[in-house]
Specification:
By secondary structure, the chain is mainly α. Helices cover 72% and strands 0% of the residues. The mean pLDDT is 78.
Length: 114
């Protein structure tokens, strides 16, 4: 049975780490991997921007159109909310035109019974 040389590092350990190069430090890692990550992130963001209707060739106008679209949706929702409240108030008034007189008659008859 042979024993490994005690002066040699174990096989699972790596050698001494070298400091990253100036290029690696500038890019935040190996340039090829950084480029691939940027490419994938650009693809995902591009798909999302395309779905919401932004055009990369005219981004400023597209952003303005998007803001106007959001404002219109908010206004539509706001008006829809007030239309619903107005409709509810009309239903309450219509029901009250029937319920309140009946309630008042019932209360008057109960008071006269005492």
């Amino acid at each position: 049975m042979t024993y490994p040389d005690p002066a040699s590092p174990p096989p699972f350990e790596r050698g001494p780490r070298t400091a990253p190069s100036a290029v690696d430090r500038f890019f935040g890692g190996p340039p090829v991997w950084v480029a691939l990550r940027l490419l994938m992130l650009s693809l995902v963001v591009g798909v999302i921007l395309s779905v919401i209707g932004l055009d990369p060739l005219n981004i400023i106008q597209s952003l303005g159109d998007f803001v106007r679209w959001v404002v219109r949706r908010f206004e539509d929702f706001f008006h829809l909310g007030f239309e619903a409240v107005e409709r509810i108030i009309r239903y309450v008034l219509l029901g009250a035109a029937v319920v309140v007189p009946i309630w008042l008659l019932v209360r008057l008859f109960k008071v006269s019974e005492r």
